[in-house]
Design brief:
Shape: elongated
Mean pLDDT: 84
Strand order of the largest sheet: 1-2
Radius of gyration: 29 Å
Low-confidence stretches: 1-20
Largest sheet: 2 strands, antiparallel
Structural class: mainly alpha
């Protein structure tokens, strides 16, 4: 029977195999620090998103238009700065749990982190399946649920107004539903019974040529009075189709690209969940070895 420890000159010597077993760990440094690095990047992104949302919200408060009405879910959805704050907090908290859980080898935080990722993944898959399998139903749902509320709120929130203007210019559309530019008759500033100078008009972002070539200035009056014209006459000055239908057609034309990006994101999420569960298992094995 061999002795792993023996005395020599008043000192002691430990066999290399015993030293190796003493320092051996089941926890992979590669997995641990990969999870930490990925979540650190998302933690920074969540903090940046939160900071921008808070800044935008405080800026509206300073201008006296930052009041928050939370009577319905739409009041939250249409307040872009509030959406950014909520999204920033969620990303910040979840990624922080991943960072700290990996760095401190805390299985409770890692379980919370992987569970959150799994919930996000299932929600994304459910939305993707509904959009791809029932596109017409989704189209009708969006038109019914959002058209009136978005049109009514156009001038109530500067962030929402800028977003709508950007979408109409980018996708070359006007309004949301199949009624197209006539949707703007539901807005109190643009309907034909309004005392405003904008009556029977549409936002400048609907115009085909909103920017004057010679001066480079935006003509905000380019859409005035077009609701009184037929579609054929109005189409010479503005885009007449609703944005929901235009976006649906764009999505169908770019279906493979969108599907590829969605699958890439899904596989990345599954990979990170796998890493988190792997690290959990390694930590549990190391704990059982110590016990």
């Amino acid at each position: 029977m061999s002795n792993h420890r023996y005395h020599h000159g008043g000192g002691s010597y430990m066999h290399p195999r015993m030293s190796y077993q003493h320092h051996f760990t089941y926890v992979s440094s590669c997995v641990k620090y990969l999870i930490f690095l990925l979540n650190f990047l998302f933690w920074l992104f969540g903090g940046l998103l939160l900071a921008i949302g808070v800044y935008a919200f405080m800026d509206k408060l300073k201008d006296g238009v930052g009041w928050v009405r939370l009577e319905t879910i739409y009041d939250v959805i249409f307040n872009i700065s509030l959406v950014m704050i909520i999204a920033g907090i969620v990303i910040f908290v979840v990624s922080f749990a991943g960072c700290l859980g990996a760095l401190r080898e805390n299985t409770c935080l890692l379980k919370f982190y992987s569970m959150c990722l799994l919930i996000f993944f299932l929600m994304e898959m459910a939305i993707a399946i509904i959009c791809f399998v029932f596109p017409q139903n989704m189209n009708s749902f969006l038109e019914f649920q959002f058209t009136d509320k978005i049109i009514h709120s156009y001038r109530d929130d500067s962030d929402l107004q800028n977003f709508i203007d950007f979408a109409q210019q980018e996708f070359k559309c006007c309004g949301l539903s199949n009624a197209g530019y006539q949707d703007w008759s539901k807005n109190e500033y643009f309907n034909c019974s309004s005392p405003s100078v904008e009556k029977c008009g549409v936002p400048y972002s609907c115009c085909i040529n909103a920017t004057d070539i010679s001066s480079g200035l935006v003509n905000i009056m380019c859409g005035y009075g077009v609701q009184e014209h037929s579609v054929a006459a109005a189409s010479k000055r503005i885009w007449t189709s609703g944005c929901i239908e235009i976006v649906r057609v764009w999505a169908e034309r770019n279906l493979y690209v969108i599907a590829g990006v969605a699958l890439g994101i899904a596989f990345l999420q599954l990979f990170v969940i796998y890493l988190a569960k792997t690290l959990e298992g390694q930590i549990d094995m190391q704990k059982s070895r110590w016990s």
